[in-house]
Amino acid sequence: MTGNITFTMIKPSAFEAGYTGNILALIEQGGYKIKAMKKICLSKAEAGLFYEMHFGKPFYEELTSFMSSGPIVAAVLEKENAVEAFRKFIGATDPSKAEKGTIRNLYGKNLGENAVHGSDSDESAEREATFFFSLIERS
Ligand code: CMP
Fold it and tell me: How far is the CA of 138 from the centre of ligand 1 (A)?
């Protein structure tokens, strides 16, 4: 059985460009319920911990520097089959390959600065939601 929760972040470049409102509007119009949300600045160490599964990969340093370069908006979203649905909804990781009209197609700049993060499994969604929010903040 698939879960109904996913986790997203609006990344620093999209936040800085003033796309937060538009992105949240698309998410809500897409049928996702915002269960928890916050604007926060990650330290490089915190970004490194969040993306620890990518430790050692060639893009890890660039990814953690970028994700700690400015504010992000983190949110827990609810919808049926949320993880798979949201990944399709935001488009391919590389914005140049993202389907037209998806969030990454509309607001992503490149592979690193791809506007939003989306969990890749139910297990990741739970880990990522717990990374940012307490149970009471998600209720
Ligand atoms: P995200 O969904 O946040 O999960 C991991 C991120 O790493 C991914 O989006 C991309 O922004 C980034 N990423 C993945 N592959 C590369 C790469 N080859 N070069 C730079 N960044 C990458």
Answer: 26
138 within a domain of the structure (yes/no): no
Let me know: does 13 contact 113? Beta carbons within 8 Å. yes
10, 19 in Cβ contact below 8 A? yes
d(CA 48, CA 10): 17
114 lines ligand 1 (CB under 6 A): yes
Residue numbers of the domain that contains 103:
5-132
Token pair recorded at residue 47: 């970004």
Quote the number of domains for the chain: 1
Task: Report d(CA 93, CA 68) in Å as an integer.
Answer: 19
pLDDT tens per residue across span 31-51 = 999 999 999 999 999 999 999
Q: What is the pLDDT of residue 69?
A: 98
